Amino acid sequence: MVEDVVVFECESDLQMKAVAVLVQKASEFKSTVYISIAGRRANAKSLLGVMSVGIENGSEIGITADGVDAEEAVKALAEYLKNPQIA
């Protein structure tokens, strides 16, 4: 299992798009990927699940992945969440 923690920095008017892109990016990997915020955990490949954890600007987000491409998944999602305007 691979883990990382990042702080989400995104303008409020772009947050919903950033969440949708996060789910798309997570879905590109074979590994099981989860995000967690303040003790709430969700499957990063599920839009409803990701929305349910309440990602907001400044949120500290834990990313965990387990599987054949776990390291790549965590790295890609961490980089994206640090700067979601790049997508």
Provide a descriptive summary of the structure in words.
With 87 residues, the protein is α+β, with helices and mostly antiparallel strands. It contains 3 helices and 4 strands; from the N terminus they run βαββαβα. The chain has helices at 15-27, 47-52, 70-82; strands at residues 2-7, 32-37, 40-43, 60-66. It has a 4-stranded antiparallel sheet. Helix 1 packs antiparallel against helix 3 (70-82). The chain is globular. The mean pLDDT is 92.
Q: How would you spell out the order of helices and strands?
A: EHEEHEH
Order of strands, main sheet, comes to: 1-4-2-3
- Give the helix/strand class: alpha+beta
Stretches with pLDDT under 50, minimum 5 residues: none
β content, as a range? 25-35%
Q: What does the overall shape look like?
A: globular
* First-residue to last-residue Cα separation: 26 Å
Mean pLDDT score, rounded? 92
List keywords for this structure.
87 residues, alpha+beta, four-stranded antiparallel β-sheet, 3 helices, 4 strands
Short description:
This protein has 87 residues and is of the alpha+beta class. The protein has helices spanning 15-27, 47-52, 70-82, and strands at 2-7, 32-37, 40-43, 60-66.
Topology:
Blueprint: E1 2-7, H1 15-27, E2 32-37, E3 40-43, H2 47-52, E4 60-66, H3 70-82
Antiparallel strand pairs: 1-4, 2-3, 2-4
Helix pairs in contact: 1-3
